Each structure stands twice: as C-alpha cells, then as structure tokens.
Amino acid sequence: MKTKYIPVVLWGFCILLATNNYNFQALLFAQEIDFHIRLLPDFSDLFITSDIQLDSKTYVFQKIGHALSFGILFLLLAKTIGSNAKAIVFCSLFAYFTEFLQLFFLRSGRISDVLIDIGGIYLAYRLTGYVESQGGLSAVFGKIADSFIDDKSR
C-alpha cells in the first residue's frame, strides 16, 4: 500500500470503530471498546425513522459527528486520489457500508444516517470548491484575518 493512503485508511478505521462499537458513549467518554455480534440481523431496521430525536442533544451531537466524520473522509480521500467525483462515490458507498455493517454489531444502522453522512460529504465538497475559488486556504484565511482586523478598527 502506498503511504499516501495511510491517513484515509486510518480515518476509515476510526469511523468503523466508532460506528460498530457496542456503546458509542462508552467509547467516547471512557474509551471502552466492546463489540457484540449478531449473525442474523433484521435488515428492515435500516428503514426505521421512529428513533429520530432532534430534541436530544446527544442525538444531534452524534449526527453532527456523522457529517463531520464523512466530510473529513471526503477531504482526505479527494486530496489523496485527486478526484472529487471518485471521492464522493467511494465515501457515499462507505457510508452505506458502515450503516449496513452496524446491523451485525447490535447497533442501529439507518438509511437516515447514510443521508446525514452524504450531507457531510456534500458540505465538504462545496467547502473545497469555495476554498479553491478563493485561491486556496491561505487566501481564505487572509480574507478572514483582514475582515477581523477591519471590524476591530471600526
């Protein structure tokens, strides 16, 4: 394997670890890794929407994490392979794969989470396009700094 793929593979591994660990909160707060296997999952669970809890801070935090995780994966992969289109396709397929795989680990794999993951991929893609149109990261940060300085001098 070429060394340029190491960050992509490591980040993908982190996503798999987080999404398939039995208790996400235990992983996040106590660094506990625990897997429970279910050999015959119910694939209809992918289509459950009754567990969407937009009033729960934990739920919203996890969904933001979904979007950020896959947005970062897109950024790493697009930079590594040099193709936004291929990175979008691969990351979207990986999003579906992680949700499907969760069904085998007593986790709640959901198509709604795939859509959130793809939303994060799309936002990262759009951010990449914006940054490129502005002349790169240094130009964007320069404009932000200039704006901040202008606001302070008023």
Automatic annotation (TrEMBL):
Identify the InterPro entries for this entry: VanZ-like
Q: Tell me if Cell membrane is a UniProt keyword of this record.
A: no
Q: Which residues cross the membrane?
A: 59-78, 87-106
Domain spans labelled VanZ-like = 13-126
Q: Which UniProt keywords apply?
A: Membrane, Transmembrane, Transmembrane helix
Keyword Transmembrane helix recorded: yes
Q: What is this protein called?
A: VanZ-like domain-containing protein
